[in-house]
Amino acid sequence: MIGRRGLFVAPRSEAAFAPSEGNIADSGLVFPTSSQRLILGTGFAVLLAVSAASIALDVKSRSDAAWISHTQEVTNKITDLRLLFRLAESAARGYLLTGDQYFAEDYRLSLDRSHPR
Questions:
Q1: Per-residue pLDDT for 25 more than 90?
Q2: Cα 110 from Cα 84, distance rounded (Å)
Q3: Is the pTM of this model over 0.70?
Q4: CB of 94 within 8 A of CB of 110?
Q5: Which of 24, 93, 96, 103 has the largest CB neighbor count within 10 A?
Q6: Dihedrals phi, psi of 93, to nearest 5 degrees
Q7: Chain Cα centroid distance, residue 60
Q8: Within 13 Å, how many C-alpha atoms sit on residue 114's CB side?
Q9: How far apart are CA 55 and CA 11, in angstroms?
Q10: Which tens digits make up the pLDDT trace of 78-93?
Q11: Share above pLDDT 70 across residues of the chain, in percent, rounded to a whole number
Q12: Cα(105)–Cα(107) distance, rounded to whole angstroms?
């Protein structure tokens, strides 16, 4: 195992077990060929594309979450407004049936609370 050189050497080949010398030119280092550089560049480009898509999807997800939160707030306000209108309607019917001022005040309070602040 002493003296192995290079990563892309066939198993049990003579080049893998040749004695190591001090000269780099004679050391048998294997440099990437143009096809290996092309594969490496393509892999790096795919990695960048996947990273960019991941970031874009994260931004989109956060934006969608903000819109969902806004929609829920609006829905809750509309539900509260419907309740106030039902209270006002009920108070108006109570006043028309009985003529009691309590229902008239309740009607006015419900309408006042339903106006935007």
A1: no
A2: 6
A3: no
A4: no
A5: 103
A6: -65, -40
A7: 6
A8: 18
A9: 42
A10: 999 999 999 999 999 9
A11: 74
A12: 5
